[in-house]
């Protein structure tokens, strides 16, 4: 499957123009985008990867404000999805803290369950961010449940 360099939409293999935005050259899903980086110097797949990296919140804001990147639908999608995912993870962490206060009442078993819950949350969160970095690097627009549709709507996809 190929993707448009400008908007990130999927297009048929062998096609050189995108039907959604009438521009861009297709890049296959497994390959890295060839030379000709954006005016800012970053290729689309690297910018998408940075959205989910440890500096993701800063990169998201920069990509949504900076001129060559804020017009690229692929980068906008990943920046918005990363922001919305970070908000959802933050809300889930607060919910786990509240649940922890309830579980703390149970002497030993409650603390064990709470510890296991935090470990599962941490490893799941780590796996999610790594998976999304890989998908963005491969020029794929994988939509996460709930936040993916919001990000696509904001990015104009």
Polypeptide structure, described:
The chain is mainly alpha-helical and 157 residues long. It has one domain. Helix 1 packs antiparallel against helix 4 and helix 2 packs antiparallel against helix 3. The protein is elongated. The two termini are 17 Å apart.
Helix content: 55-70%
- Quickly count the helices: 5
Q: Measure the end-to-end span.
A: 17 Å
On the 0-100 scale, what is the average pLDDT? 84
The number of distinct structural domains comes to: 1
Strand order of the largest sheet: 2-1-3
Q: Using the alpha-carbon principal axes, give the shape.
A: elongated
Strand coverage percent: under 5%
Low-pLDDT runs: 26-36
Elements, N to C (H/E):
EEEHHHHH
Number of strands: 3
Outline the biggest β-sheet.
Answer: 3 strands, antiparallel
**Rg to the nearest angstrom?**
19 Å
Keyword list:
single chain, 157 residues, mainly alpha, three-stranded antiparallel β-sheet, 5 helices
Describe the SSE topology.
Layout: E1 2-3, E2 10-11, E3 27-28, H1 44-51, H2 56-65, H3 73-103, H4 109-137, H5 147-155
Helix pairs in contact: 1-3, 1-4, 2-3, 3-4, 3-5
Would you kindly provide a brief summary of this structure?
With 157 residues, the chain is mainly α. It is built from five helices and three strands, in the order βββααααα.
């Amino acid at each position: 499957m190929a993707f448009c360099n400008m908007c990130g939409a999927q297009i048929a293999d062998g096609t050189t123009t995108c039907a959604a935005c009438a521009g861009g050259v297709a890049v296959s899903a497994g390959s890295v985008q060839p030379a000709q980086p954006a005016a800012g110097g970053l290729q689309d797949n690297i910018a998408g990867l940075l959205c989910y990296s440890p500096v993701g919140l800063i990169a998201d804001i920069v990509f949504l404000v900076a001129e060559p990147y804020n017009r690229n639908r692929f980068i906008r999608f990943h920046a918005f999805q990363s922001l919305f995912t970070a908000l959802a993870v933050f809300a889930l962490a607060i919910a786990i803290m509240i649940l922890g206060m309830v579980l703390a009442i149970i002497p030993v078993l409650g603390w064990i369950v709470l510890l296991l819950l935090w470990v599962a949350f941490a490893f799941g969160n780590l796996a999610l961010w790594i998976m999304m970095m890989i998908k963005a690097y491969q020029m794929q627009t994988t939509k996460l449940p709930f936040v993916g549709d919001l990000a696509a709507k904001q990015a104009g996809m």
